[in-house]
Amino acid sequence: MHKYLVMVMRTPHFDPAVVEPHKQFLAELRDKGMLQETGRFTDGTGGAYIVLAESLDQAREIVFTDPVHTTGASEVTVYEWEITG
């Protein structure tokens, strides 16, 4: 498994009602052993999480089902992440 950093930045279409479905999505990933870390930005602009997947394509496939993405509430970008320290 490889680590992928997921940046989640709120759009002008952000609706607070998506927060609970997003948290449920993350909980399901955690239960499957596919989520390492999560956190929000204290300035309220979004957050980030680390997903574990076999490839960048698989990570994108998983992440793009996140309700914050499918509703247009946030722009989601996935990066392959190599931790160096």
Total helical segments: 3
- Derived structural class: alpha+beta
Give a short account of the largest sheet.
Answer: 4 strands, antiparallel
Q: Classify the beta-strand content into a percent band.
A: 35-45%
Shape: globular
Helicity range: 25-40%
Give the total of beta strands: 4
N- and C-termini, Cα separation: 18 Å
Weakly predicted, low-confidence segments: none
Spatial arrangement of strands, main beta sheet: 2-3-1-4
What's the SSE pattern? EHEEHHE
In angstroms, what is the radius of gyration? 12 Å
Calculate the mean pLDDT score and round it.
Answer: 96
Quick recap of the structure?
The protein has helices spanning 19-31, 56-63, 67-70; strands at residues 2-10, 35-40, 46-53, 74-80. The chain is of the alpha+beta class. The longest helix is centred in the N-terminal third of the chain and has 13 residues, at 19-31.
Per-chain topology:
Layout: E1 2-10, H1 19-31, E2 35-40, E3 46-53, H2 56-63, H3 67-70, E4 74-80
Antiparallel strand pairs: 1-3, 1-4, 2-3
